[in-house]
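Worked example

This section walks through a single chain of length 361. The input is the sequence exactly as stored; nothing has been trimmed or padded.
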Amino acid sequence: MKKLTPSQFFAMLICTRAFSMMTFLPESTANALELMLGTVLSTVFQIVMICGMAAFHKRFPNDDPCTLVVSRSKWAGRGVCTLYLAYFLTVSFYVIGTFTYFMDYYFSDYIPRLMIVLSVAACGIYVAMSGLGVIGKTGTVLFVLFLFVTSILVISSLEDFTFVDFHLAERNVGKGIFHSAVSELARSSYLAVIVFLLPSTKGNAAKTSVYFLLTRLALVEIVLGFITMILGDYTLLAKLPFFALAAFSRTAIIERYDAAVMGVWVMLSVYKLGVYFHCSGRCLRYVFPKLGSGSGVIITAAIPAVATLFWLLPHKWESIAYAGLSPIPLIFLGGVIPLLCLIFVTVSYTHLRAHETAANL
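Given that input, the structure is written out below as tokens.
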């Protein structure tokens, strides 16, 4: 299997996070300063998690937690693979549902929700089945596009920003920062992808992941800051603050800049689905080794696509969108399982050496 280069791995992670950044839904009690400080706190915690992943990768450079446990115990391995599979399917469920919800919100008179789900799932399957090498190259192109549209958006909005809307005087600032950090961590589903794809990346993948986290922090802070300083309280009323900012921006290049931003967003959504379909397809093949790679991707794409229809067709997706994911499964998959694998194998090796030494005596 072809491996990702460090730059491709970096770009892939940025693109998966960029989709969540562009569909950010602030809570009614959200405060920009708390959100930004919470993002910093979350980044520090994620760097600690990356250190644990780095230790795991250094000890087992050719294994992810699934392949390692499968090689030690067939049934325990299937259990671990099922946990990762369930999480990847859940993220795919959210991506398909969120994409369909907002496409329907803007174009409800033209495209039925069922067709949007089928279209985006089919495109995601195509990306996933293209292989990891193609996924890496595509991510590099999309990263450049995202950086380009974001840079123009920021530059064209410079003359309109003001610090008045930061609302620095707030009660329970500590509680708000902690809540924002937890919410940001819950949106960081890429952590499961990092630990899963570490052996599929050339070079020092853990170091690349830290560079990614710092770049992501800078991008999130810039976008959050500009959205707040320009839109003010309208941020809480807009369905998609990122697109609202694009609509308000004045560029001499494109008259409707929000249309260009939406075009990049569509590509990012398909790309993120492709990445998670690829990971979930591999997990499914670990559980059922006789399953073909194409069949695994199609099955893991069909499950979340069908599941979203139970909320999308009755127009109940908002209850899902604002609820969000819990960070607990992510902490378990990205931090606890790799460390448990590392500890278990180290202890087993120590006991084995002790028995061998005792036998020699």
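What to look for: The longest helix spans residues 74-107.
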